[in-house]
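Q: I'm building a small set of examples for a reading group on sequence design. Run inverse folding on the following structure and report the sequence directly after it, with nothing in between.
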């Protein structure tokens, strides 16, 4: 099953600090929701740490099948949230559920595996034009393998400028 990655990165590809986003950009979060919900029947795949980093009031992410990657067989998840032990298993589960689109949403380990997966078709990347103090990063990727297909105009929110880019596998 083809899938996409979606992430917001700072100017040095940082994505998080102490298990949280180091920025609060409501319009960027709205973009994330809009893309990952799409026309409906989409799935989001995330590592356990990313799942735990989501504020409880937003768990599970609404209107999407939530698949959490963990090797802990007894890890408890709410009804409707699916556990998978690997990215390939998660993709198979999403396919069985007849999902329209599938998005990998983090964290670092999952992004690193997913970006090299042959079925990774594109990357939705919000590129923030500022450096934050991050302790986790998005993997650097080969721009020979992923070509920028679109880039939005510069967005500005809370004195932070950013752009939405889409990179497609060549």
């Amino acid at each position: 099953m083809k899938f996409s990655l979606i992430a917001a990165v700072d100017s040095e590809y940082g994505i998080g600090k102490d298990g949280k986003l180091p920025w609060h950009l409501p319009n960027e979060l709205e973009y994330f929701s809009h893309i990952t919900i799409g026309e409906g029947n989409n799935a989001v795949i995330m590592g356990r740490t990313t799942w735990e980093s989501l504020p409880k009031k937003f768990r599970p992410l609404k209107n999407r099948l939530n698949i959490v990657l963990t090797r802990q067989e007894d890890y408890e998840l709410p009804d409707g949230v699916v556990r998978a032990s690997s990215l390939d298993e998660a993709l198979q589960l999403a396919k069985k559920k007849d999902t329209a689109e599938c998005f990998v949403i983090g964290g670092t380990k999952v992004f690193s595996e997913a970006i090299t997966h042959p079925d990774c078709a594109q990357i939705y990347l919000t590129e923030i034009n500022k450096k934050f103090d991050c302790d986790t990063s998005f993997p650097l990727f080969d721009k020979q393998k992923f070509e920028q297909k679109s880039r939005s105009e510069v967005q500005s929110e809370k004195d932070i400028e950013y752009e939405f880019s889409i990179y497609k596998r060549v």
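Residues 6 and 75 are 25 Å apart (CA to CA).
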